[in-house]
C-alpha cells in the first residue's frame, strides 16, 4: 500500500474548517449553474427563434440585434455554468470567474430591465447574493 496518495504537498495550505456558510456558497454555485442555464436558453432563443422575442429597440437601453444579444447571453451562460461547477468543486479560478460573470450578467440584465422589469430585478438580486457568497465565504468550499 502506497502512502503518497494520502500525503498532502508541503506547500499546500490546510483547508479551512467548514462553517455554516458553506451552504450559502453551494447555493451560490447552484444559482450560477441555474442562471447560466437560463442565459443559454435566452441566447439560443435569440439566435434560433427571434420571432418569440417581442421587445422593440425602444424598450432597451442599448440597441442590439437579436443575433448579438443571443451570442452575449450564450457566452455568459456557458461560462457561468462552468464557473458554477468549479465553485462546487472548490476551485479558486471558478470563484473569480463567477464573480466576474455574475457582475457582467447583472449589467446585461440592467440593459434589458425595461423589457422585463420583474425578472431582471429578481436576477440582479440573486446576482448580488451570489457575489456576496463567493467573495465573503467562497474559500469554505476550497478543494484540497
UniProtKB/TrEMBL annotation:
Occurrences of domain DUF7144 (ranges): 25-139
Superkingdom to which the source organism belongs: Bacteria
Key words of the record: Membrane, Transmembrane, Transmembrane helix
Coiled-coil stretches: none
Pfam families: DUF7144 (PF23636)
Annotated TM spans: 21-48, 68-89, 96-112, 118-135
Name of protein: Membrane protein
Amino acid at each position: 500500500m502506497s502512502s503518497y496518495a494520502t500525503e498532502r504537498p508541503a506547500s499546500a495550505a490546510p483547508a479551512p474548517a467548514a462553517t455554516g456558510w458553506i451552504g450559502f456558497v453551494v447555493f451560490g454555485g447552484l444559482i450560477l449553474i441555474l442562471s447560466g442555464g437560463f442565459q443559454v436558453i435566452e441566447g439560443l432563443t435569440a439566435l434560433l427563434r427571434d420571432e418569440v422575442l417581442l421587445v422593440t429597440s425602444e424598450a432597451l437601453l442599448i440597441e442590439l440585434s437579436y443575433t448579438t444579444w443571443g451570442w452575449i447571453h450564450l457566452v455568459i451562460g456557458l461560462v457561468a455554468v462552468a464557473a458554477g461547477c468549479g465553485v462546487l468543486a472548490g476551485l479558486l479560478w471558478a470563484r473569480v470567474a463567477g464573480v466576474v460573470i455574475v457582475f457582467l450578467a447583472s449589467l446585461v440584465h440592467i440593459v434589458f430591465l425595461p423589457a422585463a422589469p420583474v425578472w431582471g430585478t429578481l436576477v440582479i438580486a440573486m446576482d448580488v447574493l451570489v457575489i456576496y457568497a463567493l467573495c465573503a465565504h467562497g474559500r469554505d468550499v476550497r478543494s484540497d
